[in-house]
Amino acid sequence: MPSFSIILVNALISICLSLIINFFIKEIGKWIDMLFKKKKWKANIAKFFLLAIILFLLINYSPTFYQKLANLDCSRYGFESDDQIWAITHDQLRGSAMSSVGQSENAFYKGKASMNIRVALKGDPSERAFARDKGEVYVDPEVIPMKRCIFQKRGDIVPGKTVIKARVYIPKSLISDNLSEPLHLQLFIEDNAPSPNRFTDESATKKLISAGWHLIKFAIPENVNGLSKIGIKIGLNDNDHGTYSGEIFIDTVDW
Ligand SMILES: [Ca+2]
């Protein structure tokens, strides 16, 4: 449920837009009446099309402006009220370097909150098979999140066309001292096959050489048939045997 402040801001913006449109139609309407003089039906048709064009422009081109005005996060996964059913992948042998997925207002890319995850990475060459050298978190995109904004677009995932984007905040404690062997961040998907295939590539992988918000994105390949997972992974370089811990924040996962 959107908060009272969001509902209030939405209501105020709607009233202001209505007043502006009303004024605009009234003033342009006078000019249309003059143009068509005695042919009132033509003037009415012209006013109708004018209103339709204004509404079309508002619905299709104002979301960015509207979101900024109301400080909204209209992403599918904006984590404004909860963790939106994201979960950690637990490897039976290695466990996970991630723990405690939650929702936090301590950091956000848009809106007022994001998803926070504790990360404790450990690279240990002596017991490599048990080292917690990576962690990943995922969501089932079949579970459609609640719509939070009036103008929120809800396009389907189209293989060969859709690009999934996400922002991830990385603290300084997860940046390696050896920048030639940095940690990496990766966006991946899995398809709907009985034994799901994982898809990702170099362009969806980011080497972490600086702290702050990072953009990661992945273009869905044409040969993908349905999605069972969208996930984000953080891991050590194979040659890195250090330990790193900190809290990461994920926000605005969208396409
Ligand atoms: Ca957010």
Q: Mind explaining what this structure looks like?
A:
With 255 residues, this protein is an alpha+beta fold. It has two domains: 58 residues; 168 residues, Galactose-binding domain-like (Jelly Rolls). It is built from three helices and eleven strands; from the N terminus they run H-H-H-E-E-E-E-E-E-E-E-E-E-E. Strands 1, 4, 6, 7, 8 and 10 form a six-stranded antiparallel sheet that branches. Strands 2-3-11-5-9 form a five-stranded antiparallel sheet, with no helix packed on it. Helix 1 runs antiparallel to helix 2. The radius of gyration is 24 Å and the shape is elongated. The model has no long low-confidence stretch (mean pLDDT 86). Calcium ion binds next to loops.
> How confident overall, as mean pLDDT?
86
Q: What is the percent of helical residues? A: 10-25%
- Give the count of helical stretches: 3
> What would CATH call the class of the largest domain?
Mainly Beta
- The assembly state of the depicted protein chains is single chain
Helix-strand pattern: HHHEEEEEEEEEEE
What name does the CATH topology of the largest domain carry? Jelly Rolls
Note the topology.
Layout: H1 4-36, H2 40-61, H3 63-70, E1 87-88, E2 98-104, E3 114-122, E4 134-139, E5 163-170, E6 183-191, E7 198-199, E8 205-208, E9 212-219, E10 227-235, E11 243-254
Provide a compact summary of the structure.
With 255 residues, the protein is α+β, with helices and mostly antiparallel strands.
